[in-house]
Amino acid sequence: MKTTEHIDPLTPREIVAELDKYIIGQAQAKKSVAIALRNRWRRRQIPEALRDEIAPKNIIMIGPTGVGKTEIARRLARLARSPFLKIEASKFTEVGYVGRDVESMIRDLTHLAVDMVKSEEREKVEAMAEAQAEERLLDLLLPGLPVEDQAGPANTRERFMKMLREGRLEDKYVELEVSQKPPAPMVEIFAATGMEEVQSNIQDMFSNIFPSKKKRRKMTVSEARKILQQEAAGRLIDMDKVVEKAVQRVEQSGIIFLDEIDKVAAKSGGGTGPDVSREGVQRDLLPIVEGTSVHTKYGIVRTDHILFIASGAFHVAKPSDLLPELQGRFPIRVELDALEQKDFARILTEPENALVTQYKALLATEDIELIFEPEAIEKIASIACEVNEKTENIGARRLHTVMEKLVEEISFEAPDVAPQSIRITAKYVQERLKDIVKDEDLSRFIL
Q1: pTM of the full structure
Q2: How far is 37 from 11, CA to CA, in rounded Å?
């Protein structure tokens, strides 16, 4: 796998083409995020003096639930191989109240980046770790045999190595000394918001104080190989380098997706009650989005160039209800369209992870072949759209509930009737869902 530093940058058109594989419609939103992602690469090509002056163009995505806001951000992060964190803005509360402090999202993002870089480094040393594990396994398989004898005329070590690589010794038992770290004592700190990091650090400190115990265990060669490879990889990875790289990656290419931003937008005219706390959250968010230094267990992380993508339905509040300073930090506004029936039909079949493809694959495991007729797809889309209009509009998520109800009987009977092909027709869809669609109360309850 290529690391972030060596990825050929995608052009905005290529980014949109990749997003099109998973998200139907929403061309304007895709275009905006594609430009934002490309601008990060452009910024890295600029001389350093000017580079630091260029702030990321943060985005607010406005649109009803289930139209693809979160999916766009998630897929974008995968394309960029960037550290990505999705978090609900409503989880935060004003400092002094019970709840999470806004800085915790930077700490979480840094932790994710460290894991990401560590995984990449582990892949780089995999071959070396495997070779070291094999040598160690041979020592365990040939205990007490002097090295000069192992390399003698019979060439015992070489023969054993050949058998090991051919997988002929996988079920043999060896004795291995395994490190067992005692569980860290539970340390609970009852203090003001923002103490999560202190609690984590104290727990780490205690776990380092108590020495790890060694215990001899008998296990198969295949089990021992995994443990020895992990230990070898751990020795080969330079954790200081990993942390340095991870912090740099967070600072230069981290993406934070702030969902439900409208829930912390105080409605105009409010001055007391929960609106005060909402405004407090916005004030706490402001320095993070503007650029500040956050203390994490891996060192100080600057947030100046992290890309923030905020999203919300904005049914009650409006983007203009956010603090003016915060609005200024989200210069790009994108409105996502509500989904229509034709969009539902495309969502069912076109994306690479389309629902119809998923259900076919699930039931194929039971030797049931599902065949969806085009008219059946249209009917499912029509019903999902109709239920959304009558009850709550939850966008594409409605398709999950409709599809689950549709194939419920087939899923239940599958092991008893397999193998066979089942054709889903428009008539079948109508019969399975007619009562629910007709009865609005039942529809609210079930779909």
Answers
A1: 0.76
A2: 9
Distance CA 282, CA 272 (A): 15
Neighbour-count burial for 375-384, b at 16+ CB within 10 Å, e otherwise? ebbbbbbbbb
Q: String of b and e for 144-167 (b: at least 16 CB within 10 Å)?
A: eeeeeebeeeeebbeebbeebeee
Nearest to 124 by CA among 297, 245, 37: 245
Q: Which residues of 67-76 are buried (b: 16+ CB within 10 A; e: fewer)?
A: bbbbbbbbbb
pLDDT digits (tens, 9 = 90+) for 51-64: 888 888 899 999 88
**Distance between alpha carbon 147 and the CA centroid of its chain, in Å?**
49
N- to C-terminal Cα separation, the chain: 42
Residue count (the chain): 447
Three-state secondary structure call for residue 284: helix
Burial 390-412 (b: 16+ CB within 10 A, else e): eeebbbbebbeebbeebbeebee
